[in-house]
Amino acid sequence: MKKTMLLLASLLTVLILAAACGNGDGGTAPAADGPADGEMTTLTFWTFVHSHADYFHAAALLWNERNPDRPVQIEAEVIPFGQMHQNLLMALQAGTGAPDLADIEVGQAEMFLNVPTPPLLPQNEVLAQYMPYLVYSRVAPYGAHGNYYGVCYHIGAVMMFYNQSLFDEAGLDWRDIVTWDDFIEMGIEMKERTGNWMTHVDVTNVFYWETLVAQQHAQYVIDGRPNVDSPEAIRAMQLLHDMIYEYGMARVMVGYNIDSEEFYADFNAGGAAAVMAPAWYMGRFINQMPDLAGQISVGPVPIFEAGNNRSSSAGGTMTSVTNQVDPAIRDLALEFVAFAKADYDAALMQWTLLGFDPVRWDVFDNPAMRAPSPAVDYFGVDFADQLFSLLLDIQAETAGIHRVQANAFAIRDHIVINVKPNVIGEPLVDPETALREAQAVLESMFP
């Protein structure tokens, strides 16, 4: 382990700086019978996140150390989110121009998987050896037609991050929070004692709402049809509305969503005591909220009632192998991608390099997870212990919304455009009425 991590540390920086951008033409074609032993194989890779490219360069180093007879190098191209997915879809539909490997964000996966024949290669066989150690909720969203087409970079477990300094100032202990009623009660006390808001509620996405729906074992899209007015969906929207307009302990989120520059600045300045976010949001703290270093604590999502899940999976990106990979390197590409996402040492890098919560549950007690890294340096060793203990505790209570199905994107979009602004942004319509009206409209669109 030490040898591996030292090798990565010494070579990763050089590779990141020297890595050339790919041209997206599918890579260089090896001989028909595949590369000879020891011959370097180039795999082209499209992604929309620079740190994902860095991660795959590091994964290639790790693979090459283990497999000197089958070395690979990654030719990565980082393309803006919307453009990358559109370019990839067009290339796959045209049958030419796609890379060997491609990141596909979970919200976009419907376009690639909800078709009769996905233009991606199944990874079932190469993932089989890793499946006992993977958190299943990070594989399941990328399944279709009985196959799995990728693994995420992280669990993306939603949790509640607390500004510990504000709770200390208020003389309150967030550990006493179990239910949403507890959260509201403590939020009222927080506002009375310090003048600070307990939390903010998002407007321009469905993240908060769908987390609360999922934790009640519900879905708002079922078999491609809307289910946005279920009792669970109404209960979730009502809670978000009431925290602002009934109890006065929350406010409309500055910047309207958790990934706005305005919200980063506000939370960094102590604008609220808590934010509900996936574990990958830790990277936002590190990069966008420097003043909170050493001040953040983390706990499970409060529940409505016993039996609810205390977390949900949010966001995520699989790495796929396209059907345009050269047949001579097909097996190598599949084995490498599975290794890069699901190998034990690769999972360690998901924390040490990316600051993500790894997709393997068996790495949380490894000392390397508490060694100096960007995440540990920012949050502290005590936070790391707190986080990994929490992840182990909630691994069986991490629900998720089934995004990869027909019409899911359009249904989410309708909620964002037509419901949340009028319920959360301004209290123009009560939550139940808004969702019942949305259900009627969506049923006419997707009968």
What is the overall pLDDT average?
89
Silhouette: globular
- What share of residues is helical? 40-55%
CATH homologous superfamily caption of the largest domain: Periplasmic binding protein-like II
pLDDT < 50 stretches: 1-32
Which topology of the largest domain does CATH recognise? D-Maltodextrin-Binding Protein, domain 2
- N- and C-termini, Cα separation: 55 Å
Write the layout of secondary structure elements.
Blueprint: H1 2-18, E1 41-47, H2 50-66, E2 72-78, H3 81-94, E3 101-105, H4 109-113, H5 124-127, E4 143-144, E5 147-148, E6 158-163, H6 164-170, H7 180-194, E7 199-201, H8 207-214, E8 221-222, E9 225-226, H9 231-245, E10 250-252, H10 261-268, E11 274-278, H11 282-288, E12 296-299, E13 311-312, E14 317-321, H12 330-342, H13 344-352, H14 374-379, H15 381-394, E15 398-399, H16 408-425, H17 431-445
Parallel strand pairs: 1-2, 1-3, 7-10, 13-15
Antiparallel strand pairs: 3-14, 4-5, 6-11, 6-12, 8-9
Helix pairs in contact: 1-2, 2-12, 2-13, 6-7, 8-9, 16-17
